[in-house]
């Protein structure tokens, strides 16, 4: 049995610790119009020490978002355009022989940044994808006989273009599972796009200020660990994940022939972490069911496999997650 902390004191502490979130959001709103889901997803990934996969058509401010976030935190940023001829050394670096000194020198790659944008990750072959995913998982890169730790915080935002699939190398399910969140982007609302249009036609673009330090982000991660999650919320998270594996046991027999495999234990962990971070973004010291429900689609949509029957009926992972959330009893 877990002991219940002093919720009032914890709430006040989290409110103080999370005050910088408003500063970041205010800065980002200068250049990112709409797309609140993407901004929140990036912040959750950053605070949960996870990585984010974005899927959307070109021109939806994916590059601008992560570059702007790095500026508000005063962190380093690098962008890698994935292409079929890319090599692992183009990402993680390599060793170069120095003829004058007769020794090998280490040349670090663009992965050695706080924020890394892996643009169109499905354009590069599996060897390159796995090199990046290894760095994401291990938080270090081995060059020669020496391992080099990656900077903290370290966030990879990978993008996929869902329109063009010719000449691409889709990420295997096991590698997709390593991303904390998968966020699907849609077009902005009409009035948001009007604002975007006007902003882009102005000669003097807004400049972003560094309002938070990387040390504050690392400190916030410790504070998030202390956010209270009741056993009922834990059970709700487990119910959601287990319902994607055994839908019949949760009175959702209609999904039995639609799901080829459900979310792994990594999905349960990711859902709990993301729910805590969602509560932190709301300046709250405890998790409520709405936190879990808000992040569930982004956490689970890339962790559920579809059967041929589901694809034939044009049922998506989002439809399955929605069905699960609508069926299960909310604590």
| Beta-strand residue percentage | 5-15%
* CATH superfamily heading of the largest domain: P-loop containing nucleotide triphosphate hydrolases
Number of helices in the DSSP assignment: 14
Characterize the overall form.
globular
- Which residues form runs of ≥5 with pLDDT under 50? none
- What is the averaged pLDDT score? 89
Q: Oligomerization state of this entry?
A: single chain
Evaluate the radius of gyration: 21 Å
Q: Structural class from helices and strands?
A: alpha/beta
- What distance lies between the first and last C-alpha atoms, to the nearest angstrom? 18 Å
DSSP E strands, number:
11
Commentary on this structure:
The protein has two domains: 21-215, P-loop containing nucleotide triphosphate hydrolases (Rossmann fold, 3-Layer(aba) Sandwich); 227-327, Magnesium chelatase subunit I, C-Terminal domain (Helicase, Ruva Protein, domain 3), CATH 1.10.8. Helix content is 45%, strand content 15%. The protein contains 14 helices and eleven strands. Strand 3 (93-98) and strand 4 form a beta hairpin. The longest helix has 17 residues, at 265-281. The mean pLDDT is 89.
Question: Could you give a short description of this structure?
Answer:
This protein has helices at about 5-15, 20-30, 35-45, 60-75, 90, 125-140, 175, 190-200, 215-225, 230-245, 265-280, 290-300, 310, 315-325; strands at about 50-55, 75-80, 95-100, 105-110, 115-120, 140-145, 145-150, 155-160, 180-185, 260, 305. It has about 325 residues and is of the alpha/beta class. Helix 3 (about 35-45) packs across helix 11 (about 265-280), helix 10 (about 230-245) crosses helix 11 (about 265-280) and helix 12 (about 290-300) packs antiparallel against helix 14.
């Amino acid at each position: 049995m877990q002991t219940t902390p002093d919720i009032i004191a914890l709430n006040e502490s989290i409110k103080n610790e999370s005050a910088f979130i408003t500063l970041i959001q205010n800065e980002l709103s200068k250049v990112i119009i709409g797309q609140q889901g993407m901004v929140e997803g990036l912040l959750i990934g950053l605070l949960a020490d996870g990585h984010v996969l974005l899927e959307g058509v070109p021109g939806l401010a994916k590059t601008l978002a992560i570059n702007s976030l790095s500026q508000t935190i005063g962190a380093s940023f690098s962008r890698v355009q994935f292409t079929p001829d890319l090599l692992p050394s183009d990402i993680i670096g390599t060793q170069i022989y120095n003829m004058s000194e007769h020794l090998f020198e280490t040349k670090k790659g663009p992965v050695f940044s706080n924020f890394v944008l892996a643009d169109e990750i499905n354009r590069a072959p599996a060897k390159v994808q796995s090199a990046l995913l290894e760095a994401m998982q291990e938080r270090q890169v081995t060059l020669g006989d020496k391992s080099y730790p990656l900077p903290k915080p370290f966030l990879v935002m990978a993008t996929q273009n869902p329109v063009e699939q010719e000449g691409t190398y889709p990420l295997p399910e096991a590698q997709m599972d390593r991303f904390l969140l998968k966020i699907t982007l849609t077009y902005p609302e009409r009035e948001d796009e009007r604002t975007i249009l006007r902003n882009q036609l102005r000669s003097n673009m807004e400049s972003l200020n560094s309002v938070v330090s990387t040390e504050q982000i690392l400190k916030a991660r410790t504070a998030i660990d202390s956010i209270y999650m009741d056993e009922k919320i834990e059970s709700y998270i487990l119910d959601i994940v287990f319902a994607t594996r055994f839908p019949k046991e949760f009175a959702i027999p209609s999904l039995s022939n639609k799901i080829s495999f459900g979310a792994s234990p990594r999905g349960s962990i990711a859902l709990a972490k993301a729910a805590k971070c969602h509560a932190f973004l709301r300046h709250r010291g405890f998790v409520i069911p709405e936190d879990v429900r808000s992040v569930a689609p982004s956490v689970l949509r890339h962790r559920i496999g579809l059967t041929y029957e589901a694809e034939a009926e044009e049922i998506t992972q989002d439809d399955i997650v929605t069905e699960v959330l609508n069926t299960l009893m909310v604590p």
